Backbone:
């Protein structure tokens, strides 16, 4: 008997090409890594030479100034000559049209450049990838970097030049840098694809040979399902395991024929019960999350149990809604509200949030309950920011329809709560309770006090510090609390002037908390140069004027105590 195991051996032979695939991938990887290591060391050597040249030129400039007693104007001329010497030397040791040298100061401004797309005086968008902390050893401020310039990928090696507080970067186009490795990859890929194609053809041939009898079984089964005829039988072609399978299948059909009527009735009743359960679950999902419905269905005795966990709570509220409602016809108001809630709720659901409740025109949403996804805090902040973005689209439509525009405030807090089904067996709500919920509500109210559309707590900022920009708003003790909290305004994207303004703003806050009124006022005024009519900055400028006249007490730490919600 020609056993099926031998047929399997025939099929498996082409699969041995997997070894070739692994070998090809390993070879390409090693070649790619080897080329990268050599090239990186070569770029590192060149950047060291350029930095050494810069250090020598600076030492010469210092000696000239000391020996010749240069005045300011002469010193500037020699300084320009020094820069040109560095640039000329950089040109001499770099490959034309392939490698470029750029020097960037600690503020991210380009000082010298041999790259036509990076002009001196411009800000380097990729500088954040290079900058190290101020307290780090200058000798270790160097490394490898990849970035985009003019929509082309570049890679390079940079090193810190402490004398002028510069970062000097030697870079090359990625496609030129990895040219040899890419060629090896393409050749290996072609060989690999040819091998896979040949193996696939052989595999198809053998599969057709092996699966011929099995197709007869499948065909007979399909005919039975379509025609509801259990008298169907399959031919026995081979005297092996597949032949035994066909024989057993024919015997099984006889037994199934006797039980078919009972199975059909059971299946029919099962489908009816399942559809009924789905209808009930779909109705309840309009009021509570699907995960909660599933938990109640599968664990009805635990339905009222609560548990403690950390979640992100979001509150949003429409500003001056009473005034808006009084100025709009009821039908227009209802249409506007339905459109508004549809946009906002879709954003929350897309970010895997749960609508806890509607409080009039306010929305309370929870991220991280009943199910955790690992990035719930980040998703909560993204939801708040996207709600503000979508509000602009909504208001554009309102203006088009001559309807009132909406303004909203959003408060977000991350912290411990008790979450579960709260209530009785007759009536319950799935919700979260705790101080973290109250604080999120208070933060939403503070948006009116500080003239910003969204405020998050310091715990929320710590949990998302790697994903957003932040501007410190201040320190507040909300109503009903004794401990102050630090509050922040987040942003996903900032324009260049906004990045600069927020950086200056945070420095101004630090001076403000240290009672250095003059320094803080100067920086806040500088912020207004970038952010016109920023009401938060104006609030601080007014407070500085008041504190100059009536300084705060000895124990003042910058905390504002709120006496209302």
Residues:
């Amino acid at each position: 008997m020609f056993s099926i195991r031998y047929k399997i051996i025939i099929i498996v032979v082409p699969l041995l090409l997997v070894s070739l695939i692994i070998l090809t991938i390993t070879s390409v990887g090693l070649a790619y890594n080897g080329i990268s290591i050599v090239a990186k060391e070569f770029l590192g050597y060149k950047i060291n030479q350029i930095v050494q040249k810069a250090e020598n030129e600076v030492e010469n400039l210092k000696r000239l100034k000391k020996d010749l007693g240069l005045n300011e104007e002469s010193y500037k001329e020699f300084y320009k000559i020094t820069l040109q010497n560095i640039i000329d030397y950089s040109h001499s040791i770099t490959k034309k049209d392939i490698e470029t040298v750029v020097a960037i100061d600690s503020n991210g401004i380009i000082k010298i450049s041999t790259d036509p797309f990076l002009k001196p005086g411009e800000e380097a968008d990729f500088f954040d990838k290079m900058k190290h902390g101020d307290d780090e050893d200058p000798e270790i401020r160097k490394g490898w970097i990849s970035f985009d310039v003019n929509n082309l990928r570049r890679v390079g090696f940079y090193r810190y030049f402490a004398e002028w507080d510069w970062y000097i970067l030697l870079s090359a186009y990625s496609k030129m840098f990895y040219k040899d490795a890419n060629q090896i990859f393409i050749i290996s890929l072609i060989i690999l694809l040819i091998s896979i194609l040949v193996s696939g053809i052989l595999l198809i041939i053998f599969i057709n040979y092996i699966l011929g009898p099995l197709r007869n079984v499948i065909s007979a089964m399909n005919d039975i399902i379509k025609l509801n005829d259990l008298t169907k039988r399959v031919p026995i072609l081979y005297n092996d395991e597949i032949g035994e399978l066909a024989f057993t299948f024919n015997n099984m059909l006889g037994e199934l024929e006797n039980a078919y009527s009972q199975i059909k009735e059971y299946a029919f009743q099962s489908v009816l019960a399942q559809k009924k359960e789905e209808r009930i679950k779909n109705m309840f999902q309009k009021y509570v999350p699907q995960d909660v419905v599933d938990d109640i269905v599968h664990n009805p005795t635990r339905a009222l149990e609560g548990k403690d966990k950390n979640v992100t709570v979001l509150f949003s509220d429409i500003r001056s809604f009473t005034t808006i409602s009084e100025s709009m016809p009821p039908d227009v108001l209802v249409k506007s509200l339905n459109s508004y809630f549809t946009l906002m709720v879709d954003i929350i659901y897309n970010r895997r949030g749960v609508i806890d409740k509607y409080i009039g025109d306010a929305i309370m949403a929870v991220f991280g309950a009943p199910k955790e996804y690992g990035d719930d805090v980040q998703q909560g902040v993204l939801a708040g920011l996207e709600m503000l973005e979508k509000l602009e689209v909504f208001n554009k439509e309102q203006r088009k329809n001559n309807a009132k525009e909406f303004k909203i405030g959003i408060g977000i807090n991350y912290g411990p709560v008790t979450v579960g089904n709260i209530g009785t067996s007759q009536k319950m709500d799935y919700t979260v309770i705790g101080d973290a919920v109250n604080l999120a509500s208070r933060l939403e109210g503070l948006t009116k006090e500080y003239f910003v559309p969204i405020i998050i707590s310091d715990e929320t900022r710590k949990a998302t510090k790697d994903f957003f920009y932040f501007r410190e708003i201040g320190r507040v003790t909300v109503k009903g609390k004794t401990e102050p909290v630090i509050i922040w305004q987040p942003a996903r994207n900032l324009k260049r002037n906004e990045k600069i303004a927020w950086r200056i703003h945070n420095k101004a806050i630090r001076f403000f908390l240290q009672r250095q009124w003059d320094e803080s006022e100067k920086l806040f005024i500088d912020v207004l140069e970038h952010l016109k009519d920023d009401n938060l900055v104006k609030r601080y400028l007014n407070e500085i004027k008041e504190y100059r006249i009536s300084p705060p007490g000895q124990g003042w730490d910058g905390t504002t105590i709120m006496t209302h919600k």
User: Anything to note?
Assistant: Residues 228-284 form one domain.
